[in-house]
Amino acid sequence: MSISQWTAEKDELIRVSSHFYHKGWMVGTSGNLSVRVAPDTFLITASGRPKGMLGDEDLVSVKGLYELPGPSGNGRKPSAEVSIHQAIYSELREANAVFHIHSVESNIVSEWASDHSVLLPPLEMIKGLGVKDPSLGYRIDVLENHLDVSRIALDLKRLFAQDQVFNEFHLPAFLIRHHGLTVWGNDVLEAFHRIELLEYVFRFMVAMGPSGSTPPMAGFH
Ligand SMILES: [Zn+2]
């Protein structure tokens, strides 16, 4: 299939990118979005492009989930964080869209990690991540940030391998400490919903504070 036939997918990513930009989650050129268009091929936002005003030419195709992509036909390079998307698509068949944003709240929450994860509050909203009973106490994984992004991708693959060994339920999302949130879904709409609800949960957590309870109001003891 030629890239010119992926117009609908490109339009979706451009719309989502603009929405996230206006939320303050993809400020400047930060963050990256992708969608799988064939078993071994995905479209991803190009490196260094303004996320509030992407055009068709700012989506580039990456073929080969295990290899670094070559230059695209239009001269644009894939996001510098493409290896994270490759790791997810190659390890998880159910992932067909991957969104990565740099929000303030996700970075604050990432500071509260202990044992490489953060406990999420038992909010009803968490059900949107595939959780049946939010009160069971689900944790979101927090990976260390590395200047060499391929090291983050390697850590992610190790995490997926661990989850398979221990047969644990893992959320379709993870944090990179002091960097941002990554979410995947079966399609663009599912990934979109998941990132919005997780950002809601993070806003709630930031309002409550690291101890999980609101600070006492002045004058009340
Ligand atoms: Zn990033």
UniProtKB/TrEMBL annotation:
Reaction catalysed by this enzyme: 5-(methylsulfanyl)-D-ribulose 1-phosphate = 5-methylsulfanyl-2,3-dioxopentyl phosphate + H2O
Gene Ontology MF terms: methylthioribulose 1-phosphate dehydratase activity; zinc ion binding
The protein's annotated pathway: Amino-acid biosynthesis; L-methionine biosynthesis via salvage pathway; L-methionine from S-methyl-5-thio-alpha-D-ribose 1-phosphate: step 2/6
Binding site for Zn(2+): 100, 102
GO biological process per UniProt: L-methionine salvage from methylthioadenosine
One Pfam family hit: Aldolase_II
UniProtKB keywords: Amino-acid biosynthesis, Lyase, Metal-binding, Methionine biosynthesis, Zinc
Cofactor binding summary note: Binds 1 zinc ion per subunit.
Cofactor(s) listed: Zn(2+)
InterPro entries tied to this protein: Aldolase_II/adducin_N (IPR001303), Aldolase_II/adducin_N_sf (IPR036409), MethylthioRu-1-P_deHdtase_MtnB (IPR017714)
GO cellular component: cytoplasm
Top-level EC class: lyase
Record EC number: 4.2.1.109
Stored HAMAP family: Salvage_MtnB
NCBIfam families: salvage_mtnB
Alphabetized PANTHER family for the sequence: METHYLTHIORIBULOSE-1-PHOSPHATE DEHYDRATASE
Role, per record: Catalyzes the dehydration of methylthioribulose-1-phosphate (MTRu-1-P) into 2,3-diketo-5-methylthiopentyl-1-phosphate (DK-MTP-1-P).
Protein family membership: Belongs to the aldolase class II family. MtnB subfamily.
Entry protein name: Methylthioribulose-1-phosphate dehydratase
Taxonomy of the source species: Bacteria, Pseudomonadati, Nitrospirota, Nitrospiria, Nitrospirales
Gene: mtnB
